[in-house]
């Protein structure tokens, strides 16, 4: 059975610096995969390679059996993989609705008819609870709303895989719980989720599988409990005794 | 014919050195301020005219002017920064772009127009010569040699400044990561003002040399700034070596074009080079992939 | 003001303006016609500039090259015996091809570098038109077949100007316009959400070039003479852009306001003080840049009026696909 998403032997260098070294993994459809690792481990670089904004120096990315390595990010979005950003990047002076509308109008494999588009954008906003703020400029929203907008915009493209890059960073515990619920709902709708996270509580609660990156290499993969007690992983987070207790990574 | 060619190339190299020096000033300012100073070419022009006045009225030797000009124009640059650029500092990126282009281009026009209005002669040049040297049957102008050495010296001094002094390192820090520099306590505003002044002083210094070799007119500023852009893009942003190499390429290209094709075509060559490098290697010769 | 009430007011206003403009040649001295012709030229250039500069966020300071090349191409074709309309169309095609060709290298520049790079195009064209004497008549320029075309040129110019404003408005409300705004806000992210940025940037530049080319052709047909300094000079290059920015870049009303304001100022000031025009331009640019880079339309003074006009749209009525003025740059 061909894997839904597959990365084979991904290498990415920046000049002399190796950001990703021989990273390989595959993912079945409907999975919730968590990616953890110390800062600078290459997690966002991996996202960039999958989403198409970076080309790997070596290796391949395959989606539903076809090779998508080196495709432009716009093409990959239309094929069904969309993403959020660690430091939120909304279209600031556009309204929340227009932000989602960009996803609807350009990010889908099939453009919905004109009369449908605004409705579809509204649906995406409603999914994250932003429909009451649809006409507010994105830059005027609070941080947690901006994070929700990132998700709404990504969902507006009808993705099959969604890449979430540290969605809960900077949020209070209550806000965090709300987003966890949203992510669960995303997964219930059949969308495959890959999430980069530092907050272990979130990873433990949501993810079925966890991958650990350190200095650009994959050092562990398994269930959250197994990974967290792996001595290699603990050593990677050297000195952080809280890891074993399920605190912050 | 070969002697002609050598003279030509020598002139091109010299011109290139001048371009490179001024362009580096522009590039370093941009790195620190995130604002491209479209009035940069005007400062070369002003440096030229000031040097001319110093030469004609005070009998000041251009080499002395080139040094004297540095503190004077650093001050001018700092004032320019404080009046025109600091108010723009904390604006969001798109507004900053529009505002900075309006302000620097507007300042450029005003400087140019006012200078043209008050400066009676449309075209100016200094005739400064020392006894030429003879080496291996080729006549080398001593002036040109000294200028070349001076520019090299200045470039070397710059390198040392950027690497060794506190301010130099602060400049590089801000260029690499503005937020980080703030966190570490570097006074962004102060360093920015100084950097801008330094960039302006380099342009003026280049101007002093320029007027001893070529003629100067008050309206040369804007096409000159475009040439700096070509140099910076050719060489790669932020790289001193890149600016120097880019400048040399441009200088040589202009000299060769003037000789083989015709002097009226050499203003075009900068832009053609720009388009070419953008097509074949957009990050410049020494730039890195972003 | 209700939506329907506002619509009626705007339509009434437009109708009245159209009647006055059409009757102008018979109402007043011919000077008004000349002045309005130039006004239409500046308006076309300012609005077409703003499609790329305001909506898409790429300040194409070299916009007037489309005007100049269109003018030269039309002049040359007219001299070869072509009629006006074929000459205008052919010139537009040439300019469109030129825009497409330069978009490839120039769009690799961003922000201020793009602005400076496109600005360089102007002096390049100036040098080319001076040097290619056989084609362009050199610095002396060329004349086109003589004749008094001031009346038809006047109407044509008004039509082109109105058409450009309509184009601008239609674009802003279309799906294409949404893509342009997203490119302006964050090009990399726009691309990540499916916008074909390279294609759209090129297409937009070409779209902005066509009105400029047309008005350039009409200009040279009317004036019956063209030279490098007339069409590639600094003033014609910068005035429409300054007008657009003064009025409010990225909005529908902004460029129009800016053109009105500056042409009036020019009328008053230029005649009183016959020198230092560029300095005054420069000073205006510096002041606008320092104190109101968003333009007149966004100043606190005019905001309440603007809001009264757009309030009916915000949050309630969303015409077709577009979302009206709520999408303008803040």
Order of helices and strands of chain C: HHHHHHEHHHHEHHHHH
Give the helix level of chain A as a range of percent: 25-40%
Low-confidence stretches of chain A: none
Number of strands of chain C: 2
| CA gyration radius of chain C, whole angstroms | 20 Å
Number of strands of chain A: 10
- Average pLDDT of chain C works out at 85
Straight-line distance between termini of chain C: 23 Å
Binned, the helix content of chain C reads over 70%
Share of β-strand residues of chain C: under 5%
Taken as a percent bin, the fraction of beta residues of chain A is 15-25%
Envelope shape of chain A = globular
The rounded Rg of chain A comes to 18 Å
How is the largest sheet of chain A built, in terms of strand order?
6-7-8-3-9-10
Describe the oligomeric state of these chains in a short phrase: heterotrimer
Q: Main β-sheet of chain A: number of strands, strand sense, barrel status?
A: 6 strands, mixed
Average the pLDDT over all residues of chain A and give the rounded result.
90
User: Strands of the biggest beta sheet of chain C: in what spatial order?
Assistant: 1-2
- Structural class based on helices, strands and sheet pairing of chain C: mainly alpha
* Estimated structural class of chain A: alpha/beta
Largest sheet of chain C: 2 strands, antiparallel
Q: Any overview of this molecule?
A:
- The complex is a heterotrimer of chains A (249), B (290) and C (330).
- Chain A contains 9 helices and 10 strands.
- Chain A has helices at 43-51, 73-79, 96-106, 114-127, 143-155, 173-188, 200-206, 224-228, 231-236, and strands spanning 5-14, 17-27, 32-36, 58-63, 66-67, 81-83, 161-165, 192-196, 209-214, 217-222.
- In chain A, the strands form 2 sheets. In chain A, strands 6-7-8-3-9-10 form a 6-stranded mixed beta sheet, sandwiched between helices.
- In chain A, strand 9 (209-214) and strand 10 form a beta hairpin.
- The mean pLDDT of chain A is 90.
- Chain B is mainly α and 290 residues long.
- A two-stranded antiparallel ribbon of chain B has the order 1-2.
- Chain B has helices at 2-33, 40-58, 62-85, 93-118, 142-164, 166-176, 178-184, 188-213, 221-235, 240-260, 266-280, and strands at residues 133-135, 138-140.
- The N and C termini of chain B lie far apart (45 Å).
- Residues 312-330 of chain C have low confidence and may be disordered.
- Chain C is built from 15 helices and 2 strands.
- The two termini of chain C are 23 Å apart.
- In chain C, helix 2 (30-55) crosses helix 12 (234-247) and helix 12 packs across helix 13 (253-272).
- Chain C has 330 residues and is mainly alpha-helical.
- Chain C has a two-stranded antiparallel ribbon with strand order 1-2.
- Chain C has helices spanning 3-27, 30-55, 64-79, 84-106, 111-131, 133-136, 150-172, 175-185, 187-192, 197-223, 228-232, 234-247, 253-272, 277-291, 303-310, and strands spanning 142-143, 225-226.
- Chains in contact: A-B, A-C, B-C.
- At the B-C interface, helix 4, helix 9 and helix 11 of B face helix 4, helix 5, helix 12 and helix 14 of C.
